[in-house]
Specification:
Length: 193
């Protein structure tokens, strides 16, 4: 078990435990890596490229990441995040609230191919950073809220699992492509469809 109330590191930080990692406040002036059974940041994580692998859960109250975020976990909850790079996540359940734009490299499942429940609440826009025709999101149940989701030049490519539910709300453009199972779209709301 690693229990760190406050941590300030001049360079990179790597924390590996066989049980839970709990961090109150962490300022890492380099890259941050954590491998554990569960990871919890109760206050704030500030770092450059961040990689977190947890067997069960990752709970982060607040994160400012000046680089990429790579998550591998069954259940990810991030209450408040600013991310300058891209998000790559292998997670079965993800609840992510972002203060700025969110650039997705890929989101897929951890214990199965698809993310079971994906909830993205983004104050800026959601974009696909992979710039390819491949699916950037593989999910079953999707709830996305943002200023804009995708663009004409670079739509969000979603591969849907069977028995899916999709809810999308954006103030501006919504540009998505879906493949996989038939889409069960409950709601798409935008001023510019």
């Amino acid at each position: 078990i690693a229990n760190v109330a406050n941590m300030e590191v001049a360079n990179d930080a790597n924390i590996t435990t066989t049980d839970k990692t709990t961090i109150g406040n962490a300022i890492v002036n380099g890259n941050f890596e954590n491998i554990s059974k569960d990871t919890e940041v109760t206050d704030k994580l500030i770092a450059k490229d961040t990689k977190i692998e947890a067997e069960n859960s990752v709970n982060i109250a607040s994160a400012v990441i000046d680089g990429d975020l790579n998550l591998s976990v069954k259940n990810a909850d991030i209450d408040d995040m600013s991310l300058s790079g891209t998000l790559t996540a292998q997670t079965d359940i993800a609840n992510i609230n972002a203060n700025d734009d969110l650039r997705i490299n890929s989101i897929a499942g951890n214990s199965k191919p698809y993310t079971e429940n994906l909830n993205l609440n983004v104050k800026g826009g959601i974009s696909d950073s992979s710039n390819s025709d491949n699916s950037s999101i593989l999910a079953k149940n999707i709830d996305m809220q943002a200023k804009a989701i995708g663009s004409e030049e670079n739509p969000i490519n979603i591969n849907l699992a069977e028995n899916n539910n999709v809810n999308i709300q954006a103030a501006n453009d919504v540009v998505i492509n879906t493949t996989g199972a038939n889409s069960n779209i409950n709601n798409i709301s935008s001023e510019n469809l």
